[in-house]
Amino acid sequence: MIGVTGSAGLFTVILAFCWVYIRKYQSRQESEVVSTITAICALAVALITSALLPVDIFLVSYMKYSNGTYKEWAANNETRGQIEDTVLYGYYTLFLIILFCVFLWIPFVYFYYEEKDDDNVNKCSQVKNSLKYTIGFVVVCSALLLIGAFVPLEAPPNQNATQWEKAQYFFKELGSSRGFVALSFSISSLTLVGMLAVITYTAYGMSVLPLNLIKGTRSIAYERLETTEDIDEVEQQIEKLRSKCEDGRPLSSRDRRKLQELESKLQVLRRRDRHLEIAEKNCCTKVGSVLRPLKILLGIFFILVALLFVVSLFISNLDKALHSTGINSGFIILGTNLTNPVNELLLALQPVFPLDYLLITVITMYFVFTSMAGIRNIGIWFFWIRLYKIRPRRTRPQALLFLCMILLLIVLHTSFMIYSLAPQYVMYGSQKYLSNMPSTRDVQGNSTGFSSRTCDAAAPEDQCTMTRSYLFLHKFWFFSTTYYFGNWAFIGVFFIGFVVSCCKGKKSVIEGEVEADDSDMSDDEYLH
């Protein structure tokens, strides 16, 4: 009953956060019910999926006592199997929902609103054209599932078997955990795309978020003074150009072009001045000034956390490079040979329940929120083409759908990132097992007991239970190999983003609110 109440409470909190987050960024002028519900649900699925990893680790750890023996209720293999299957079905459900969102629901809603921009298209044509484009995504999803179901099949053990015997073996293998393999392959393929998003957005977000908190924003009074001076200067230039045609002579094409540019610039500056005036009177701005010391402390804390994660990731990758079984096995490593700070911290917190689970939950949420910060600062790009900007109260429905899809992909890769930070802990949690090596000996040299050891990859299979997350992540060695090299790219992008963020000056208090390509209508919407 407590577990159900806790789950319902967590679900309510996640939905409330998603609603507030989406409503904060969506454009009031272009908001639609369907796109809003889709974005909220997709973001909620991303957060719920990220919350499943700490639950997975907790359940495998909760089966055992601290001395390495199973608890009475978990001593039966059948009971443990039921718990493991429950977690596995949870992953099945959430991963299938992710596939549905990424390949069907979000693309359909996205193309529906793209078609809506054309005033000559009716509702029937909108739906038909949206379905036509969405079919391409469905074909890709089907191809991934089929590849996952058929490619990993092993050859028949008896090469001299008849065609009928080979067919029987084929269908027997296809029915044996093929659904798990097909889903795992599809999710791993999406995780590769998520890895690119993590390298781009999360790595930059981990550096820009704390540095923005530390540096703060520019003075509103100084910005208003600067804007007023710019307005006066541009008005003088416009008057100077207009004075050339007072006698009735037309302006040259060069002067007309320059006049248009100056008028557009003046319009932007006046809008900027209006936004600064509102920000100056805003209560949130005044509260932010009072909380400035707290922001600096938070920024310092976040940058230390980011450096801790990057150092742990570097040590983990170095450990794999030196002690793993090689590239053809996905850089699988048996145990930890180099001291990993995050892994050691989680293991040290095990005796004080539930500090280790709180920390793994905080780490998971940290990756999600830094990813959001990265997307918000960079925007959504397709190579060198900027598709959408993410701005408070002015983000288009299509941009929010893109944002949620990117977050879904990022969450998929987050599990592997956390595994890289704390490999031993993510595989087995706080489990221990009884080693055959005696812990103490009497005077005659006879053993008097057995030592309990922390579970690792070298532990007996019947003594340690792997998390279901780990099984999903490491089903295919070539994906693990790609993730390994992706971690090195993540470290490189983090330090590049850190240097770039350090070189940048303070942000404006209205950063991103006023740009030349904004319409007057969207500006009025923001002001009201």
UniProtKB/TrEMBL annotation:
One of its GO terms (cellular component) is lysosomal membrane. InterPro entries: LMBD1_LysCbl_Transport, LMBR1-like_membr_prot. Keywords: Cobalamin, Cobalt, Coiled coil, Lysosome, Membrane, Transmembrane, Transmembrane helix, Transport. GO terms for biological process: protein localization to lysosome. Residues 224-279 form a coiled coil. It is a multi-pass membrane protein. GO terms for molecular function: cobalamin binding. It is found in: Lysosome membrane. The chain crosses the membrane at residues 6-22, 34-55, 89-113, 133-153, 180-204, 296-315, 357-387, 399-422, 476-500. Its main location: membrane. Belongs to the LIMR family. LMBRD1 subfamily. This is Lysosomal cobalamin transport escort protein LMBD1. The lineage of its organism: Eukaryota, Metazoa, Chordata, Craniata, Vertebrata.
